[in-house]
């Protein structure tokens, strides 16, 4: 065969490969997603019309940008409103008006079943056990540098294995050993604030301060912060979070990651460096003669791993332990910090509750040193926490992906369907909470763990079913320790410069920080 003949064969081969690729992409981006969409529409569901390749992202971004600069102040008494759903999820709130509490919308080429209906969720979780749920592949890929194959993202039997090893580390007896680390980090922050106040600067951005402190606490409780390697990991984890979430994102859009190649590559580099540093910390720990005396989560994971070593399917590899450490950091610090931050906003607005909590602290702790056994006595503080997590849930949504067809009465959710559960909408729904759903009333939790909600799936700050948050005991402890120390030293007032504009950046946070006027007692 001559040169021209060879070229012809090569061109024909290339054309075949291109056609095949085009065929596969058409199937993945158009045919399969539209089949799912049609099946859901046949069950009577509606939703906004998508366009290719962005789906409904354009409308979502437009609505979000319109809201970001606006503030939710009720002008009469300069008070803020807690009716935040239409502000943080303006697109969902708008689509709910036309399509109800369950509808289909699209992120890029991925249809999502939107759910703000507690009853439907109850039926689904009764039908599908934790192990049989998946997590949307688009989010698993997008958040790979943060969570890898950590507990938040793993599925099936791997999830069961990880959960069996990770959950015992968070039992209250193990957590006791971490209380001192929390007290030390909180006291460092308190000293910083006291110095600022002495210098005549009583206005403090408590959000920034508390996120930094909670980051330090989670790093210390997860993998220790004794050496430079650990500090380096901590700095890089924070940088990774900024890189991933300050970036304009196009999740679900074909090649969306590459719209900002620089940021994507930076995230990959940081992810790689963090993995290497954490691996070296873990290997050093395994060889350390004092490894059993280190009471952080990593020490407990390695012990747990060691105890069951040899039994099939019950151990984590070093790679998996790395991913769990990252998962604790990303899943645990900002969520807890935001629970404390929103609490300080609400206490600054409700001086009566600030005083009630201070009184309770006086009764329970008195002049003694704060001891972990006292925390259970802080009952009103628990009601306040529950109410804050209802009004401002740091984890504002939960996602799932069906791994099989799910049949519920008239609705069939096809295998592969992504689900988006809108926790903010459910927590503010007057149909299940009553007319005062948007008011701060901690006493609703006095005699009822569900806060008087008419539906037991209407309150989901820590998720639901077997995948319920594994770190919630750690949060309860940290919340009570930090708040007790803060309320014992300072009083809080809202600064006139506060602009109430909650927004979603993975978690639900105050867009412009939380400046408070802090005074020593
Ligand atoms: C206020 C604080 C917190 C909130 C609001 C929160 C919220 C949640 C929610 C909603 C889920 C369920 C996600 C889903 O079903 O897809 C979850 C799961 C999880 N959380 Fe938390 N979390 C908090 C604190 C923590 C802490 C302190 C840690 C660890 C240090 C942690 C680690 C995890 C892990 C590993 C999972 C995955 C559990 C599983 O899938 O089996 N969280 N969290």
UniProtKB/TrEMBL annotation:
Gene3D superfamilies: Cytochrome P450
GO MF annotation list: heme binding; iron ion binding; monooxygenase activity; oxidoreductase activity, acting on paired donors, with incorporation or reduction of molecular oxygen
GO cellular component, one term: membrane
One Pfam entry name: p450
This protein's UniProt keywords: Heme, Iron, Membrane, Metal-binding, Monooxygenase, Oxidoreductase, Transmembrane, Transmembrane helix
Membrane topology designation: Single-pass membrane protein
Signal peptide: none
Cofactor entry: heme
TM stretches of this protein: 7-32
Top-level taxon of the source organism: Eukaryota
InterPro entries noted in UniProt: Cyt_P450, Cyt_P450_CS, Cyt_P450_E_grp-I, Cyt_P450_sf, Cytochrome_P450_Monooxygen
Compartments where found: Membrane
Residues annotated to bind heme: 469
Family: Belongs to the cytochrome P450 family.
Protein name per UniProt: Cytochrome P450
Organism: Clitoria ternatea
Lineage, top ranks: Eukaryota, Viridiplantae, Streptophyta, Embryophyta, Tracheophyta
């Amino acid at each position: 065969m001559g040169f021209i003949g060879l070229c012809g064969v090569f061109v024909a081969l290339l054309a075949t490969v291109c056609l095949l690729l085009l065929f596969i992409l058409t199937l993945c981006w158009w045919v399969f997603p539209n089949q799912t969409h049609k099946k859901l529409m046949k069950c009577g569901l509606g939703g906004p019309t998508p366009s290719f390749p962005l789906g409904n992202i354009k409308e979502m971004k437009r609505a979000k940008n319109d809201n970001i600069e606006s503030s939710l102040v009720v002008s009469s008494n300069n008070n803020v409103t807690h009716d935040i759903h239409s502000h943080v999820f303006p697109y969902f709130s708008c689509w709910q008006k036309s399509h109800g509490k369950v509808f289909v919308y699209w992120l890029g080429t991925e249809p999502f079943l939107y759910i703000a209906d507690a009853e439907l969720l109850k039926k689904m979780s009764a039908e599908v056990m934790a192990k049989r749920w998946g997590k949307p592949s688009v989010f698993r890929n997008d958040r790979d540098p943060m969570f890898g194959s950590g507990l938040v993202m793993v599925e099936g039997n791997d999830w069961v294995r990880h959960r069996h090893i990770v959950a015992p580390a968070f039992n209250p007896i193990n957590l006791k050993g971490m209380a001192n680390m929390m007290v030390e980090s909180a006291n460092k922050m308190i000293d910083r604030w006291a110095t600022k106040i002495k210098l005549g600067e009583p206005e403090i951005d408590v959000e920034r301060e508390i996120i930094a402190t909670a980051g330090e606490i989670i790093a210390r409780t997860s993998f220790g912060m004794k050496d430079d390697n650990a500090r380096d990991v901590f700095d890089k984890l924070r940088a990774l979070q900024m890189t991933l979430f300050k970036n304009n994102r196009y999740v679900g859009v074909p090649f969306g990651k590459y719209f900002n190649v620089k940021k994507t590559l930076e995230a990959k580099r940081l992810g790689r460096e963090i993995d290497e540093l954490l691996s070296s910390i873990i290997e050093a720990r395994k060889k350390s003669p004092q490894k059993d005396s280190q009471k952080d989560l990593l020490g407990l994971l390695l012990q747990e791993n060691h105890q069951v070593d040899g039994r099939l399917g019950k151990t984590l590899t070093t790679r998996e332990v790395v991913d769990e450490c990252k998962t604790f950091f990303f899943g645990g610090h900002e969520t807890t910090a935001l629970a404390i931050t929103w609490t300080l906003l609400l206490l600054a607005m409700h001086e009566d509750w600030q005083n009630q909590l201070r009184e309770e602290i006086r009764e329970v702790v008195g002049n003694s040193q704060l001891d972990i056994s006292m925390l259970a006595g802080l009952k009103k503080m628990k009601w306040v926490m529950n109410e804050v997590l209802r009004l401002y849930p740091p984890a504002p949504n939960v996602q799932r992906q069906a791994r099989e067809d799910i049949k519920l009465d008239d609705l069939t959710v096809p295998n592969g369907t992504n689900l988006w559960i809108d926790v903010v909408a459910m927590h503010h729904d007057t149909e299940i909470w009553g007319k005062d759903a948007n008011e701060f009333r901690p006493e609703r939790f006095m005699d009822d763990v569900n806060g008087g909600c008419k539906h037991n799936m209407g309150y989901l700050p820590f998720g639901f079913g077997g995948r319920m948050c594994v770190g919630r005991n750690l949060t309860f402890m940290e919340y009570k320790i930090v708040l007790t120390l803060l309320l014992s030293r300072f009083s809080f007032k809202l600064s006139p410069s506060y602009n109430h504009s909650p927004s979603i950046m993975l978690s639900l946070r105050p867009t412009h920080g939380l400046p408070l006027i802090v005074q020593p007692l």
